[in-house]
Amino acid sequence: MQGSKFALFAALAGGVVLTAAPAARAAIDIDIGVAPACPYGYYDFAPYNCAAPGYYGPEWFVNGAFIGAGPWFHGPQGFHGHVNNRLDPRRGYHGPLPAHGDRPDPHAADMAHFRGNEERDGHGDNHGGEDHHGR
Q: Please, which contacts does 56-63 make with residues 24 or more away whose CB atoms are closer than 8 Å?
């Protein structure tokens, strides 16, 4: 009987301690490193491989510099830019991709002939199917 009273007291005391303890908050700090150096930008999904020329439209570049995608996105709030999703490996593209640090081919970087068919926000989210603007 004495042992059961002690066990009951210990259980109650433990419950009080657990309910009185402040909630612990987890702090997560992830260092994602430097954005990939890719001549035509990099895909907006991990592992952030270099994108093929013609994947991103001209609105993704400022003075020839890619504004980023994924965790390195530096575009304006509410940005939506056109991509050519036929060059997306998740959609079956198996063509050539530039390597990190490659320089762009001056002919492949011609944006005048870009034909986007989808809008993206830079964070990997699709905001529209076939482009009805003819871009």
A: 56/81, 56/82, 56/83, 57/81, 57/82, 57/83, 57/84, 57/111, 57/114, 57/116, 57/135, 58/111, 58/114, 61/111
